[in-house]
TrEMBL record:
PANTHER family: L-THREONINE DEHYDRATASE CATABOLIC TDCB, THREONINE DEHYDRATASE, MITOCHONDRIAL-RELATED
GO molecular function: threonine synthase activity
Keyword set includes Transmembrane: no
TM helices/strands, residue ranges: none
Family listed: Belongs to the threonine synthase family.
Role noted for this protein: Catalyzes the gamma-elimination of phosphate from L-phosphohomoserine and the beta-addition of water to produce L-threonine.
Enzyme Commission code(s) on record: 4.2.3.1
Keyword line: Amino-acid biosynthesis, Lyase, Pyridoxal phosphate, Threonine biosynthesis
Domain of life: Bacteria
Designated name of the protein: Threonine synthase
Length: 415
């Protein structure tokens, strides 16, 4: 696997070592060697693997191993057959969004309840291959739950630098239940990333946050599985929530590779939806700025979007905006809760961050960016049970909006 700096273009090397950033400070990106990859042969291979049950390559990530981590030895793979998640259509949600067709890809059905598993199985497997036995992250709760689960499966140690702001209690409990050691830190996710960048190497900790390029490689599988489920014919738009922007970066990179190999005919456009109180990337593009100005105090009901300084913005810019002709939009917490209530009542269900995708799609159709005749897929990133407080809030919003004065029952007339 080759690691190239996004800033200076240098190739980073360091055998047996975890690589996150170049010496110049730029993010590292991986380059897929697509020589010899034949689209028809790959399609047949992926179909065969899909038809198998409970083999390491039958899951929705490692099924696409050739496009994710070709050289990783099979005995380093730690997997729970993650991916293989549902793709749903629901008439009420399509009507609410206003598009001709709408699919919802429920990464919330992953083993730890979020899309993080797609990337984490790859990051942890790669770390084990390099010889690490201690895995670390900072997190608003989904990343830590996922990392703790895979570390426990591998019999390794998990250390979580837990922010004292913007996390959901049930996600923290899930992380602890998988046996992770929790170290409280002051500040939010952004402070945690700064801490790990400074100290992880000295503590021989393998960092599993999405600034680790292997996380992005794993998350590309969401694009691959979506394409596979739709028989390699993609919708016009893919709409996803933007916090740390790993999803946007991975989706854009995955689509770019699918197109290059000839597995899809064209790259769908990407829409990134940020919460109004944590929208530095949207603001940067809106103001045509060339670099991101962090939001000091992110504020949103969507715990997974509680991020003011998304580390992956250069990758999201390259892959989701430039190569996938992407757009950004921001939505209010109220919009998020309203969309969440609809997704929950459709029987699919999700956490608030995921609902931002549907709220954003509705906004983009209303403002004319997306045409009603176009088709879209929204990515649902986390499970409904991840954030119980938000369930209560969206339920009361739903009940208020539906409250009508019931006519008093009439007494029965005697015959
Ligand atoms: N929502 C995330 C925050 C971003 O984490 P990362 O894994 O992309 O670094 C979380 O669950 O922690």
């Amino acid at each position: 696997m080759r690691f190239i700096c996004m800033e200076c273009g240098c190739e980073a090397s360091g055998s047996g070592q975890a690589l996150y950033r170049c010496e110049c400070g730029g993010l590292l990106d991986t380059v897929l060697d697509d020589r010899g990859l034949d689209a028809d042969r790959l399609k047949r291979l992926f179909d065969v693997r899909l038809s198998e049950r409970n083999t390491p390559l039958s899951g929705g990530v490692w099924r696409y191993k050739e496009l994710i981590h070709p050289e990783l030895p099979m005995d380093s793979i730690v997997t729970k057959n993650e991916g293989n998640t549902g793709l749903y259509e629901h008439a009420d949600l399509r009507e609410y969004a206003g598009t001709r067709r709408l699919w919802l890809k429920a990464q919330s059905e992953n083993p730890s309840g979020s899309f993080k598993d797609n990337g984490m199985t790859v990051a942890v497997s790669h770390g084990l291959w390099l010889g690490y036995s201690r895995f670390a992250c900072t997190s608003t709760g989904n990343t830590s739950s996922s990392m703790a689960m895979y570390a426990a499966l591998a019999g390794a140690e998990a250390v979580v630098y837990l922010p004292d702001q913007g996390v959901s209690l049930s996600k923290v409990l899930q992380t602890e239940a998988y046996g992770a050691q929790l170290v409280r830190i002051e500040g939010g996710y952004d402070a945690g990333i700064r801490y790990l960048e400074e100290h992880a190497e000295a503590m021989r900790l393998y960092v599993c946050n999405s600034l680790n390029p292997l996380r992005i490689e794993g998350q590309k599988s969401i694009a691959f599985e979506l394409a596979h489920q739709l028989d390699w014919r993609m919708p016009d738009w893919i709409v996803l929530p933007g916090g740390a922007l790993s999803n946007a970066a991975a989706m854009g990179k995955g689509l770019d590779e699918l197109k290059r190999i000839g597995l899809i005919a064209s790259v769908p456009r990407i829409a990134i939806v940020q919460a109004e109180g944590a929208a530095p990337f949207h603001r940067m593009l809106l103001n045509r700025e060339s670099s991101l100005r962090p939001v000091d105090q992110p504020a949103t009901i969507a715990s997974a979007l509680h991020i003011g300084n998304p580390p992956n913005w250069p990758k999201a810019l390259r892959y989701a905006i430039e190569r996938a002709r992407g757009v950004t939009v921001s939505v209010s917490d109220r919009d998020i809760l309203e969309a969440k209530a609809r997704i929950d009542r459709s029987g699919i269900g999700c956490e608030p961050a995921s609902a931002a995708a549907l709220a954003g799609l509705r906004r983009l159709v209303a403002d004319g960016t997306i045409h009603p005749e176009e088709t879209a897929a929204c990515l649902l990133t986390g499970h409904l049970l991840k954030d119980p407080e938000a369930i209560a809030l969206s339920l009361s919003l739903w009940k208020d909006s539906k409250q009508t004065v019931q006519p008093a029952p009439r007494p029965l007339e005697p015959d």
